[in-house]
Amino acid sequence: MILKIIQNKIKNKINTKYIKITNTSFMHKSFNKNSHFQIIIVSKDFAKINILRRHQIIYNILSQEIKKIIHGIEIFAYSIKEWKIKKKKIFRPIKCVNLKNK
After folding, report:
1. How confident is the model over 40-57, as a mean pLDDT?
2. Which of 36, 40, 17 has its CA nearest to residue 88?
3. Which pTM was predicted?
């Protein structure tokens, strides 16, 4: 359900050509099953926006979910031109470091 909420909120604010949201919570032992996500988003809206601003836009859209549910987000935000170059890349989620064991 949270995947649909995230997707709908993003699609309502950004004109997406492609969006993929993956729940990566299983890779993080100390968090619940809906706490970590990887978002790949492609939009013509990103054509003249730097990567920092793209991330800020997405964080703003998901601000309520970040406060209440989401602990971690990996964001890959591309313009259509960038996606044509990058889309063959394999997007592997970042593994969580369990700081309690250090």
Report:
1. 97
2. 40
3. 0.80
